[in-house]
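User: I'm putting together a teaching handout on how multi-component assemblies are represented. Below are the sequence lines for each component of a complex, exactly as they appear in our records. Could you produce the 3D structure of the whole assembly as structure tokens, so the students can see both representations side by side? Please keep the chain order the same as the input.
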Amino acid sequence: MLCAWTVSLMQTPNYFWNYVPLLLQILAAVGLSSFIVLASWLIGRHRPGKVKLSTYECGMVPQGDARGRFSVRFYMVAMLFILFDVEAVFMFPWAVIYRKLPGITGSRFFGFWEMLVYIGFVLVGYFYIWKKGILEWSKDQADL
Amino acid sequence: MNEPMTPSMIAFSPALRILPEILMTLTGVLVMLVEAVLKPRTSRKPLGIVAILGTLAAIAASVYQLFLPAGTAFFGTVQSDAFSVFFHLVIGCIVLVTLLISLDYFEGHTSFVGEYYALILFGATGMMLMTCSVELLMVFISLEISSISTYILAGYRKRSATSPEASIKYFLLGSFATAFFLYGIALCFGATGSTNLYEIAKGVADGASPLLLTVAFGMMLIGLGFKVSLAPFHVWTPDVYEGAPAPVVGLMSTAPKAAAFAVLLRIAYGAFGTAIHIWMPLVWIMAVLSMTIGNLGALTQRNVKRMLAYSSIAHAGYLLVAFTALAPMGIAAASFYTAAYAAMNVGAFGIISYLSGYNEARTSLSDFAGIARRHPVAAAAFAVFLISLIGIPFTAGFFGKFYVFTAAINSGNAWLAVLGLLNSGVAAFYYLRLLAQMYMVPVEPPREADTAHARPAFILAMAILVLAVFALGIFPGRILDLARAGAATFSGPANAASQTVPVALLRR
Amino acid sequence: MSSLTGYLLVSALIFSIGLAGALTRRSAILVLIGIELMLNAANLNFIAFWRYGPNAQALTGVMFAIFSIGIAAAEAAVGLGIVLAVYRHSKTTELDRMNSMKG
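Assistant: Of course. Below is the structure of the complete assembly, with chains in the same order as your input.
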């Protein structure tokens, strides 16, 4: 219903009406993030301590020599991030021409299944690193 | 990839065109998933057996592809024909034998063995895909799948000092080569306006800028030359072959090379078929350099793995001699040589992996002294492979060389054949020296406990290879026919289906 | 000088810089950075040839660039993993100190 409403809005002559969907998306994004923060603030228990109130620096000690050694796990996480990040790149061109795909491929669901296969492979990789314990910071099984 | 296909669209599913690759990938994924849920101390042998079954299925699927009419699929990116089937079979058999050898090599080891099998299967997928790609984008992606897998495999003996070092050298020089290959493709794209091999062939025939084409082919040749260790791009080979685990060296000295040569054949004879004058001089020089540098380098080596590394450079040179021959004969000779070389080289490294053990402590020439007395059967098999590498009649090596040099002579390249024969003479010296060590030198007490003990899988692998060496040398007919059929696919005009996705987009 | 020539010159320059870096640097990481430069020079070429080519609607150049970016990322991840494996043994990433094999 909402979708149909926005579509009808987009067809009205006023140019700025085109931005209404964008506005809706911004509202949704802001609303959702505010909701999450508020909810955790309302539901969670508040027990401030010395460590909790100190400056947060992504897990590092906030003061001292910045050239100290990083744990090798940072590299592992960084590499995994790069991989899963770049895998998302291939979804953009697919999404852009998704509506034209049946015409190009001559089959209604070819493009759809292709992407599912691709995501399936990504998930296999995710399952693998999960089971190998690489995502768990303090588990020493991963043999780093 | 079991997309529901409407029957009206095409007579059979395009997935059949890449059925071997699909089977290999699915087996690899299965092995990887099971490895992830297995307990650390559980035996990984079942995973190896699953991998072997998957490879057998892929080989069967390749044979099945022979019965399909040759043609392209997936918007003209892959083409299954006799040529691709030939290389699929070569790669499939190499992988099969390597897996059999690895079953023994990793006996009693569990750490990262499942990943080892999965990486071999993924790498093999890439190599197989290389041989049936007719679109440079596919070639590039599959080349990288195969390369990245082999980079990791080279570093598999993590506890040794040499293996990670071999891995990083292989990785850096390999990705260096990749950059050249990619730049070459970009220039080729610029010169002809397409990355489809058939479109490129049209562009080349229509007189695209010769300067751009020469540079493009040169850079692609550098890239592939690194991968197949042709001189002067061979510097990584000895170090990597010395450091990597012996079964992996057997694989990576044959299968990726076969795939890269298949790509080179498709580019040189297929895409640049009307511009032979561009690449012939380059190929000529590289063939002479590889044969000479490889054989002279091998003469001074004291480590058997290193010696065979130089010998593999020389064999890549012999193979390149076939490129100087005219189209159908040269292609058939080159294809046949990859099969012959695969049989003998995988065998030689298999025996080394058996005799030198998991830690590979005994790989120097003197460690092989008197091996014939202690391991008579293994030594006999090793002798067969070495005799074939020399090129003595009734072995695969002899017939391969014979066919390559005949093709060169018939195409008016007698000088190259003479140089090749001279080189074979030099090569005989270092192979015979190793044989003499094994059979003539009295037994020395082994420096450490010699625990080598043959198991059924290993014996089966070696039996297959010894048989293959003799079969290719004495009854080469069948394989040769397939190689000739593969070569014949190059003479046909471009496929009607050679159309890329973006072009289809444009037409809408 | 047409704009295509300009792009090609820049790309050739980047490729040469990457090549020089890969050949002269001794740290494995810096060699890797040089190689990445070479790959990206090729990507620039693809985009330029696509943009000024006769068939700009066919998105060949863009597709190639996207795929090569993805592959370069995979390659870099594997490369860093290998560098870590080497570092654990030899406590160095300098290539000329990795010389346990000779011949």
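A couple of points students might notice: The radius of gyration of chain B is 22 Å. The interface with chain A takes residues 1, 3-6, 9, 29, 32-33, 36-37, 40, 111, 501, 504-505, 508 of chain B (CB under 8 Å).
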